[in-house]
C-alpha cells in the first residue's frame, strides 16, 4: 500500500467522480481507476459502488476513508517536522485573495515573505470568499483572505479586522441619495453579487429581517467592475468603506452615510494544515503587518486568536443598519 493510493482514494471519495478526481490529482482517469483497483485488491474490500452518477462509497469505504485521512495527516505532519528541522522554507505557497491588494496589505506581505523566506515562492490566486473552502480542500490554494461573519467547519480562521460595508451610488444621484432612507433606495436599480459572495450573505440577512425587495440590475462579483458600473450610473452596490471613501473623494460616487454593515476579514487555512511551516510563517508575518499601521498610516489592528464558534451580525445591529 502506497500513500499515493490513499491520496487517490480520499480524493475520489470527496469528488465522487473519477474524472473530477483525476483533474485534481493531475492524473488520467485510467490511472486513478488503477489506483483504486489496486487498493481494493490489496485490502480485499470494495471501496466504491460504481453508479451512473459517479462513485459512491460503500459502508466499508466510509470507515476506511476516515482512517486514510488520519494516515495522510500523519504523513503530512512528518514532512512538516522535516521541513522545520531544515530551518528554511523552500517551494511554492499559493495565497488566495478576494479584494484589492492594498486593502489586504498584500504588497507588505510579499515584501516581508521575500525578506524572511527568500526560497519560498509566493503565488497569488484570486478566490471568492465563499469558494475558499473548496479551493483549500482541492489544494488550489494553501491559505487565503476570507470575508465573512461565519466560520466554515473545515477551516481555521484568524481574524485580522472588522470592516464596514456601505451603500455606494452614482455621483449624479448625490442629492437624492443623501436625503434618502433605506426604504427609498429599494426603488433604485442595484448591482448585486452572486450567492457565492460573502457580501451577499451579509446583505441578505439584513434584507430578510426588514423584508425588503431590491431591484436587481446586474450581477457581478468583481469589485473594480462593480465600481465602474456605479460610476456609469447603472445602480447602487455594497462596497468596503475604505475603498468607497477613496472613490468618493475622487468624485466617482456618493456614499449613503446613514449606517453600515459589519464584515470580518480573516486569514484562513485548513485545520489539518495548521502545523505546516509555511502556514506558521504566513501567520507570523501577518501578525507583524496587521499590528502596525498601513504604509500610508491608519488604524492599528491586531491579529486575533482562531475563531472558536460562528460569528454573526447581531440582529439588533442589522436592524439599526437599515432603519
TrEMBL record:
The keyword Chaperone does not apply. Residues 1-58 form the HTH lysR-type domain. One of its GO terms (molecular function) is transcription cis-regulatory region binding. The keyword Transmembrane helix does not apply. CDD domains: PBP2_LTTR_substrate (cd05466). Keywords: DNA-binding, Transcription, Transcription regulation. InterPro entries: LysR_HTH_N, LysR_subst-bd, WH-like_DNA-bd_sf, WH_DNA-bd_sf. It holds the Pfam family HTH_1. Belongs to the LysR transcriptional regulatory family. This is Transcription regulator hth lysr. It comes from Desulfoluna butyratoxydans.
Amino acid at each position: 500500500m502506497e500513500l499515493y493510493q490513499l491520496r487517490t482514494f480520499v480524493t475520489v471519495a470527496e469528488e465522487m467522480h473519477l474524472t473530477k478526481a483525476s483533474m485534481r490529482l493531475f492524473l488520467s482517469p485510467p490511472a486513478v481507476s488503477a489506483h483504486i483497483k489496486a487498493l481494493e485488491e490489496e485490502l480485499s474490500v470494495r471501496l466504491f459502488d460504481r453508479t451512473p452518477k459517479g462513485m459512491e462509497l460503500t459502508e466499508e469505504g466510509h470507515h476506511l476513508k476516515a482512517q486514510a485521512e488520519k494516515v495522510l495527516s500523519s504523513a503530512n505532519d512528518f514532512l512538516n517536522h522535516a521541513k522545520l528541522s531544515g530551518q528554511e522554507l523552500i517551494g511554492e505557497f499559493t495565497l488566495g485573495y478576494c479584494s484589492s491588494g492594498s486593502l489586504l496589505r498584500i504588497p507588505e506581505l510579499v515584501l516581508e515573505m521575500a525578506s524572511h523566506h527568500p526560497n519560498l515562492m509566493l503565488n497569488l490566486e484570486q478566490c471568492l470568499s465563499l469558494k475558499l473552502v473548496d479551493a483549500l480542500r482541492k489544494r488550489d490554494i494553501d491559505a487565503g483572505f476570507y470575508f465573512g461573519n461565519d466560520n466554515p467547519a473545515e477551516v481555521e480562521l484568524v481574524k485580522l479586522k472588522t470592516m464596514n460595508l456601505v451603500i455606494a451610488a452614482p455621483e449624479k444621484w448625490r442629492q437624492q441619495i443623501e436625503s434618502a432612507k433605506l426604504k427609498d433606495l429599494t426603488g433604485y436599480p442595484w448591482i448585486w453579487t452572486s450567492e457565492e459572495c460573502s457580501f451577499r450573505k451579509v446583505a441578505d440577512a439584513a434584507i430578510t429581517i426588514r423584508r425588503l425587495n431590491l431591484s436587481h440590475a446586474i450581477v457581478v462579483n468583481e469589485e473594480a467592475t462593480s465600481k465602474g458600473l456605479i460610476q456609469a450610473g447603472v445602480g447602487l452596490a455594497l462596497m468596503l468603506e475604505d475603498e468607497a471613501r477613496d472613490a468618493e473623494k475622487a468624485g466617482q460616487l456618493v456614499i449613503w452615510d446613514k449606517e453600515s454593515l459589519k464584515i470580518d476579514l480573516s486569514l484562513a487555512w485548513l485545520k489539518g494544515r495548521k502545523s505546516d511551516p509555511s502556514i506558521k510563517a504566513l501567520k507570523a508575518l501577518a501578525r507583524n503587518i496587521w499590528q502596525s499601521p498601513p504604509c500610508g498610516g491608519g488604524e492599528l489592528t491586531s491579529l486575533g486568536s482562531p475563531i472558536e464558534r460562528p460569528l454573526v451580525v447581531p440582529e439588533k445591529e442589522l436592524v439599526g443598519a437599515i432603519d
